Amino acid sequence: MVPKDDPDVPSRVEDRDTPRQPWLLTAEDQPPLRRSVVLEVTARAVFPTVLLLSVYLLFAGHHHLGGGFAGGLVAGLAFVLRYAVAGSAELFAAVRVRPLALTGAGLALTTVSALSPVAFGEPVLASGKVTSHTPWGSEIALNSNLALDIGVYVLILGAVLDLLRTLGAGVRSREGEEE
After folding, report:
1. Domain region containing 45
2. Which residue, among 66, 12, 13, 24, has the nearest Cα to 169 in the 3D structure?
3. Is residue 131 part of a domain?
4. Could you read off the pLDDT of 108-156 as tens digits, one per residue?
5. Disulfide check for 109: which of 6, 60, 151, 179 has CB 3.0–4.6 Å away?
6. Is 55 inside a domain boundary?
7. Is residue 14 domain-resident?
8. Domain count, the chain
9. How far is the C-alpha of 74 from the C-alpha of 153, rounded, in Å?
């Protein structure tokens, strides 16, 4: 049993998934000579393009290479780039949602979309298709696998963000011990 006044034990539920120490130095903590303005500007310019590519991979997965896993990894790489350039302050300025909430939402959506065909007498992961006609004469077909892919996309993105949040949490304390 852990004593309640132990400072290493989080007292609230919200504090349990908060890292105790940051991984990289924030922009304010970094000396000006260690920062690259060109790399920061390039990363900010490339970030939306890489996210758009990840959404394309998500939706192109049924007809071409891609899908929820590939799209989620590409989106995760966009956040890794932003994190590597400017640190945790820049990453969490870009992401307002908790990584564990993303992971949970992705897992829930994936589970519901995988098990929902059972309610209609179909096997698990059975696919369904809904076709609708637009007023201008075209046809839009939605596949039920898209919900599964979106769930996997959100799950992978949440896992990558959680890894970025917790990976290497002791770097700053080790740097302080060396000095």
Report:
1. 21-178
2. 24
3. yes
4. 999 999 999 999 899 998 988 889 998 988 888 888 888 999 999 999 9
5. 151
6. yes
7. no
8. 1
9. 10
